[in-house]
Model the fold of this input.
Amino acid sequence: MKPLVALVAVPFLVAAVAVGGFKVTPDKDNVVSSRLAGSWVPDPDLYERLKGGAPGKNAKPIEVRSAPEIAEKIPDQYGEFLNGRTLYMAGYIKWGEQESPFVLTDFHGNPHMLIFRERDGDPFSDGESCNVMLAWAKDPKNDMLFMGADFNNEPFRPYRRAEEAAK
Done:
């Protein structure tokens, strides 16, 4: 009887591995994922200080919303980067009119977003990434968000919560 059980169970285990999918592992103590959701606008004062000039036309407001089910839709082609990493958050990030799925993980010890851009109808066709930091404030409306590059090679873009998100 035991060999029959093994023969019946093995196909199910193989199918579960083949279907796979990534999963979000929420962590209330993760500084970024615990307060990233919301609306953010470029902070002109900090922009000058960090970037050496005023925000340009590409410095658009962003909106982040949580949608953990996004992780399960990520194609296996991103497994080389994501396998073995904790996914703290998944959802959508919107810059202006462009909305893209993303996951929050870490890279070289830094909070890191992998943002997927649509190409030819595939919402996960192109993966871009960036370092991201978030400074908590006593009052969440005073939180600060910093979006960097994919590597440690350029200044961060600073954001503050949008007025409507702070109410």
